[in-house]
Write a structure and sequence with these properties.
about 140 residues; Nucleoside Triphosphate Pyrophosphohydrolase; globular
């Protein structure tokens, strides 16, 4: 299987720090980049799509959840190591769970609702704890 060519510019992506009853949803990536790492659910913004529309779509596709977006929490620039790994600018939003239970798609292989300060020994993406703390400030928790 031939790999698709990498874009010649950074890819815009969104993610959500989703809080429910004091806990945050973390998902584990089943594919590269970040395969095997826990992170926030989200993905690429499609051309002509607003950031909020992209976030609602990605969360529905990856987890089947509905959310209420509170506001922008943080941004990260990710340039994974390795040939053809890409270049991403990720805008992370603070959000509240509003309905549904997680049903993961093929991009994810695990999820956990955790206390924000209890990530412990989980293998997480770089900067995740800082994004979570910023999201908590946005939500006033």
């Amino acid at each position: 299987m031939a790999s698709s060519p990498q874009p010649s510019h950074p890819q815009l992506a969104v993610s959500a720090a989703i809080f429910r009853e004091g806990k945050i949803l973390l998902v584990r990536r089943a594919r590269s980049p970040a395969k095997g790492f826990y992170s926030l659910p989200g993905g690429r913004v499609e051309f002509g799509e607003t950031l909020h529309a992209a976030l609602h779509r990605e969360i529905a596709e990856e987890t089947a959840l509905r959310i209420e977006i509170a506001g922008l929490a943080a941004w990260r620039e990710v340039m994974p190591a390795g040939e053809g790994s890409g270049h991403y600018v990720i805008l992370s939003f603070a959000a509240r769970w509003s309905a549904g239970e997680p049903v993961l798609n093929e991009e994810l292989d695990d999820y956990q609702w955790l206390a924000p300060d209890a990530l412990g020994g989980l293998k997480t993406t770089t900067g995740l704890q800082e994004v979570i703390q910023s999201a908590r400030r946005v939500l006033g928790t």
